[in-house]
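We read letters as residues; the fold follows as tokens. A sample entry reads:
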Amino acid sequence: MNRKDVWRLLKGTAALWLALVPVAVAAQESPPVYPESRSAGRRTQVGAQIVTQEKPAVPASLDELVAEALANNPGVQSALRRVEALRRRAPQARSLPDPMLEVGWMGNLKPFGVMRDDPSSYRGVAVQQALPFPGKLRLRGDIAGKEAEAAWWDYEAARRQVVTEVKAAYFEYAYYHKATDITLKNKDLLEKLARIAQARYEVGKGIQQDVLKAQIEISRLRQRLTVIEQQKRTAQVRLNTLLARDPETPLADPAPLARTELVRSLDELYQLARENDTGLQREQRRIERGELAVNLARKEYYPDLGVGYSYWNRPLQRDMHGFTFSVNLPVFYRSKQREGVREATEELISVERGRADRETTLYFEVKQQYLAAKASDELAQLYAQAVVPQSSLALESALSAYQVGTVDFLTLMENFRTVLDYEIDYYRELANYQAALARLEPLVGVELTK
């Protein structure tokens, strides 16, 4: 190799090094936020081959996805239909029993036939109406109304759960989307480092082991991209399933992950949970229903009434009219009415204990998600404000030192892997933080994510 060739390689090496410095400097000056691709397609690693997938140009809106899930999710629609069905039960429970109509005749097998020469022969019609003891119908209607209210909170729980799952799946999908971008960007950076190592080796300033090590690192990144892409596809299928879409339906690129400020304290979250938790609200309606059921069971000691009107047509005598009044006698109250009151009372106590248990569990769930959100938020801020900038500075320093030969290639690769891992970890914690806020929402009944 003559001097002109050596000089050409050194100039190429310097140009590659200058191309790498702005990347490291940009990473240390700001949190690791990278521009989204504006092209219609995006590069995706599949095995050892990079292919182009067509994507919708408009980012996927979380609000639109949530609205679509609520409109199409069969579980939510099933719970809503159950509420509507139970609401139709209250008017039925408040209505009187259907009256009874009786018709009959005596004296001839012919329908409504009578014997003209027999004074005991007749044909007649009778109407009877049962009248429950005053207050029973109202209580039965109120009990049915409370059952409908409890079912409405079951529907609300199903609705909130779907919203939470859609948001969590969306944040997971957004994380893997960003992890793919970061890994592809760092793969480009690593390929530039590999060319530097190759240039140094060709001019006798490097060793072949550095070139081989760079190729190994590139292969490792390709393996990592394959895993990330598989996880991203899994998140995409999960999101499509929640939206009641075909699992293979293409999804638009997600909007960039952004941090939502948690402005409420833990005590405020506890208070909101006591007021809005679907489990507590459902159990409270069941308690009110149980109290009404106890009152109804006590009213079963009182007899129901019955009235009837009869008309007889007799061929040889004058027509006859009659009225009847009936009342049931609760003579078996020891084994019936008394046990009914005890049954209703035990059910009421059971529901009250269930509400107390739900309240205890609720506080734990709120605290658990609150601590998870706080921990992920602190880690994300630590990565953005300290770890990533510091590791980027370390990479820049190692790059400069490697260029002059004071640092070996292994150290440079170690700093490169550190920057890559910390950048991805930042978005992992950001997605975990947003998902923890989403899991708090069904417990407190207010929106915490944007």
Observations:
- Residues 337-404 form the longest helix (68 residues).
- The chain is about 65% helix and 10% strand.
- Residues 3-96+132-300+336-444 form a domain with the Outer membrane efflux proteins (OEP) fold (CATH 1.20.1600.10).
